[in-house]
Amino acid sequence: MKTVASFFRFDHYRTSFRKETVAGITTFLTMAYIIIVNPAILEAGGIPRGPQTTATILAAVFGCVVMALWANRPFAIAPYMSENAFVAFTVVKTLGYTWQTAMGAVFVAGIVFSILTVFRVRSWLAEAIPLSLKCAFAVGIGLFLTFIGLNETGLVTLGVAGAPVKMGNIAAPSVLLAVFGYLLTVFLMTRRVRGAIVIGIVATTTLSIAFGVTPMPKEFVSLPPDISPILFQLDIGSVFDLRFFPVVLTIFIMAFLDTVGTLIGLSMRADLLDENGNLPEIEKPMLADALATTVAPLLGTTTTGAYIESAAGIEEGGRTGFTALVVAGLFLLALFFAPLFTIVPSHAYGIALIVIGSFMIEPVKRIAFDDFTELVPAFLTIVLMIFTYNIGVGMSTGLLTYPLLKAAAGRGREVPAGMWVLALLAVSLFVFFPKM
């Protein structure tokens, strides 16, 4: 019988049980907010919050377990933030479709993902992406995380017309605690203390409770809400109405691009890419997210995929699927201890995102700054990820401008066939999404 270490190949990835466990705890703490946020967003689309909480957790558990045992990668899976807002506010509230129909679209997208993955179409497309764009994905995701962290901690807030963002109230107790937590985390990392990010999050949360900034929950243990009102309630038949096609296509493209960009960006940071800049056996983590996306709407929630917050665990040394398995276990516990796990305030987990961002900008030096056909697509990818607050928009822009600039420069032969397919998908997103 294989041991845990041999099954997850700890020796091959130069990791250990302790590293992987700490990595899993770190990843979970930075993404536990989804237990509250996803149900809150989807409630606006008519999905009951209680059952949705259970669906969110179960979808994350399923995805993380498949990622751990099948793909053996340290990437946590949970419902995506951008897709849940798209379903709730655009598909349901703006276009007037039912949430059951929206879930049917997610299910169809998951089936298509699974088929494309099995036939290695998704991996073929991913491997067609040039190194400069892969580097841009990693850098863009890192800065995107940083921007989220700055906003969550209150260091950066919404501004006014002409100045969209501004410095937050640095005298606010939550902001001061965030600054302390960040400095503590950086100091511990400088001293090479293992688990520095977890220590920083826990210390900040503890102080926040002690100073009355974060209230203690009224209870620590609770039974999971009944999932039956949304379980297997998806409407697949309405998905095949031609008028609904733009919705299905948009969900498909958004999920596809988010997954590819996240997997490549995280793998680059974890040093899991090969000498050609590709993730070996990428179809395995892709199939994990495809299966999770297929199961999620059956449970009653939206598109799932690899979470960029997995970078927190990777920074703590997570390199194998055991990290994802730990995340799955903690999500499972959250079914009964949700009040305890969700007590971590945004100004505590936000500091982890800022720290991670500083480590993920390293690949920028691998972009060819002296070649405009490489630099401009990479630059647009990075800045539009951040300033549109949408990873898919940034990626789409890069995937579209790269082959166009190469062709304009008379270097079209340098563009793999797969890049032209990706460019077509990018065009489709821009054509259909604004009409939503």
TrEMBL record:
Q: Keywords assigned by UniProt?
A: Cell membrane, Membrane, Transmembrane, Transmembrane helix, Transport
What would be one Gene Ontology cellular-component term for the protein?
A: plasma membrane
One of the Pfam families matching this protein, by short name: Xan_ur_permease
Example of a GO MF term: purine nucleobase transmembrane transporter activity
Q: Does the keyword Membrane apply?
A: yes
What subcellular locations does the record give?
Cell membrane
- What's its membrane topology? Multi-pass membrane protein
Q: What is its main location?
A: membrane
- Similarity comment: family membership: Belongs to the nucleobase:cation symporter-2 (NCS2) (TC 2.A.40) family. Azg-like subfamily.
The protein's name:
Permease
What organism is recorded for this protein? Answer: Geobacter hydrogenophilus
The UniProt gene name for this protein comes to pbuG
